[in-house]
Amino acid sequence: MGISFDKFDGVIWYDGKLVPWTEATLHVLSHGLHYASAVFEGERAYGGQIFKCTEHSERLKRSAQILDFEIPYSAAEIDAAKRLVLEKNNFRDAYVRPIAWRGSEMMGVSAQTNTIHLAIASWQWPSYFNPEERLKGIRLDLAEYRRPDPKTAPSTAKAAGLYMICTISKHRAERRGYADAMMLDWQGRVAECTGANIFFVKDGVIHTPTADCFLNGITRQTVIELAKRRGIEVAERRIMPEELTGFSECFITGSAAEVTAVSEIADWRFTPSQITKQLMDDYTAETQPKAAAA
């Protein structure tokens, strides 16, 4: 086991100022800890530039609004704070984690007057999955828990509470020898993985579940655009588990996972091939820093 995350060196941006990493703490009675009134983002910096930086900041603010609170910083201010964290920690290729939460002024379900806090941390983190596995294809279990009906949970927010069933499902999958797990939705349709969106390929066409009860990932949107640039048809639709037998390729996408091939989901098998490999390469090229205009 490596160094505990609360023991890292460096600085964290916390409510408008940089503080030493080990001093970026909150009270045990913070509402965000007890009632999951917290939203966050997962972002990557490549060569010192945060990929889709503003899109992530804007989504963070939207997520907070869905959870009925307002982050007291603009998207532009959040962008600047993220870049400052990278600069002060001397990182160029790194993971970036902004998080906003309700504080500790009131402890109970209702906490409308609690202070809203925002912190931004960054650390060096290689690929979420083993680099060799990313092309060969990771193995996925089938999760026991399902993505809830969007009428019962704020599914369009990147909210901390929505990841509870993801942690349970990923732990179970890892104990069974898998890298991750694929989740179905409340109606038994294919949804996503515990922290990544999922895609399938059949006869040169990409198929991906409609993002109506889970997050429409920024990486997901990027990969769909990259596929369309290459003239590859992308069908966003309902996908039932029994259809998986007919797909030849499978891959997942996310800021942490980037584009990662899948070779197995429970009893279904896939062979990473041309489309998966092409989109892995295209995504890598897309994330490279762009030269500033003269």
UniProtKB/TrEMBL annotation:
PROSITE patterns: AA_TRANSFER_CLASS_4. Pathway: Amino-acid biosynthesis; L-isoleucine biosynthesis; L-isoleucine from 2-oxobutanoate: step 4/4; Amino-acid biosynthesis; L-valine biosynthesis; L-valine from pyruvate: step 4/4; Amino-acid biosynthesis; L-leucine biosynthesis; L-leucine from 3-methyl-2-oxobutanoate: step 4/4. Its EC number is 2.6.1.42. Gene3D superfamilies: 3.30.470.10, D-amino Acid Aminotransferase, subunit A, domain 2. Pfam families: Aminotran_4. It catalyses: L-valine + 2-oxoglutarate = 3-methyl-2-oxobutanoate + L-glutamate; L-isoleucine + 2-oxoglutarate = (S)-3-methyl-2-oxopentanoate + L-glutamate; L-leucine + 2-oxoglutarate = 4-methyl-2-oxopentanoate + L-glutamate. Acts on leucine, isoleucine and valine. This is Branched-chain-amino-acid aminotransferase. It comes from Rhodoplanes serenus. The lineage of its organism: Bacteria, Pseudomonadati, Pseudomonadota, Alphaproteobacteria, Hyphomicrobiales.
